[in-house]
Design goal:
This protein is mostly helical. It has twelve helices and no strands. The protein has two domains: 255 residues, Growth Hormone, Chain: A; 60 residues. Helix content is 75%, strand content 0%. Helix 4 runs parallel beside helix 11. The chain is globular, with a radius of gyration of 22 Å.
Length: 357
């Protein structure tokens, strides 16, 4: 689990660096094209690398698969189009957003009804009856919500305000690597000594502190003074949470439910990412537009005609102020994760001895 968690987090960082390389030396389209050969390679290697598993009788839950896939797709589409745009215009009331979110609610409700009546459900609800596993899935949702929005807006900030190239932007995330590696190696040993719950509380609190620290970054900050420390703290906290979250998500689960139990953590992260971009984006771009209006009004009131350089300074300040609000939202989501770890997770050290068995 430590190795898997480390690869999951490091894969995100490597993807940011690889994206910078592709955008700098090829084309932004290669960020999408590169997934094709990777997917083909995985498909070719899977029959050789993965062991055969036993088969069991049963029917494939096609209605559940259709409603779940369509429901989540509609939810992600609606959230992706709902966020306030850089011009400060909110789109939560747009017809297509309302239609998509309504369709998502209907489809996901239908999915729940189908699963409760299916003899071979895609999602057996017995998996969710454990408060510890349910807590792990909620933590996954929170982490996805907080982290993806942060990565998106921080990348914009360090390119547009600090003037970094795409490649240099990717390399700026490298300090995550040692922080994540160290904590993912230490976390499994710590679980057996002090338990999962204290580690989840500490990890989410550390991550929330790192995100709050990041929100103090301004247009005048430097990489060493404004980004290095917060991302190392974030990496340390997230590294712990990832390992323990997966362990708790598989606690005392039946062998035939292990795939569902682990996949729900991934679902939480992906859906959380869409929620994060919508919520953080709405707060961040609204604050950016508000800052620009207030600066323009102040300049007009003083009778000052802003030069091109002054406009650039105003825009940089607005981005810094707006994105700072977004990071505060992400910090709040991670603080909510601390509350979830405190209130929901009750797992004991003895319970983890049966993980995966």
């Amino acid at each position: 689990m430590a190795v898997y968690s480390a690869m999951a987090v490091l894969g995100l960082v490597v993807g940011l660096i690889a994206g910078g390389l592709l955008v700098t030396y090829a084309s932004w389209r290669w960020v999408l094209f590169v997934n094709v050969p990777i997917g083909l390679a995985v498909a070719a290697l899977a029959p050789r690398a993965l062991p055969r598993t036993g088969r069991r009788a049963g029917r494939f839950d096609l209605p559940g698969a259709i409603t779940a896939t369509a429901g989540v797709a509609a939810l992600v589409y609606g959230l992706s189009n709902a966020a306030t745009t850089p011009d400060g215009v909110s789109h939560w009331g747009d017809g297509k957003v309302i239609a998509a979110l309504t369709a998502a609610a209907v489809l996901l409700a239908a999915f729940v009804v189908i699963e409760t009546r299916s003899s071979d459900p895609l999602l057996p609800f017995r998996v969710l009856r454990s408060r510890d596993r349910a807590g792990a899935y909620l933590l996954s949702l929170c982490v996805g919500t907080a982290m993806l929005g942060m990565f998106f807006f921080l990348s914009l900030f360090i390119q547009d305000v600090w003037g970094y190239s795409p490649l240099r932007t990717g390399l700026a995330y490298l300090p995550f690597v040692p922080a994540v590696l160290v904590t993912t190696l230490v976390a499994p040993q710590a679980v057996s000594r002090i338990g999962a719950r204290p580690l989840l509380i500490a990890g989410t609190a550390i991550a929330a502190g790192g995100m709050f620290w990041l929100s103090r970054t301004t247009e005048h900050s430097t990489f060493a003074g404004g980004m290095l420390g917060p991302e190392m703290v974030l990496g340390a906290g997230v590294g712990v949470v990832f390992v323990v979250m997966f362990l708790v998500g598989l606690t005392r689960v039946r062998n035939d439910d292990a795939g569902v139990a682990s996949s729900l953590i991934n679902v939480g992260q992906q859906v959380g990412g869409a929620i994060g971009l919508a919520i953080v984006g709405t707060v961040a771009w609204s604050a950016v537009a508000s800052s620009l209006r207030s600066q323009a009004a102040a300049a007009a009131g003083a009778g000052v005609h802003a030069s091109a350089a002054a406009h650039t300074r105003m825009y940089d300040h607005a981005l810094a102020a707006g994105f700072s609000r977004g990071y505060l939202v992400s910090a709040g989501v991670l603080a909510l994760a601390v509350v979830i770890a405190l209130a929901v997770v009750r797992i004991r050290r003895q319970d983890l001895s049966g993980v995966g068995s």
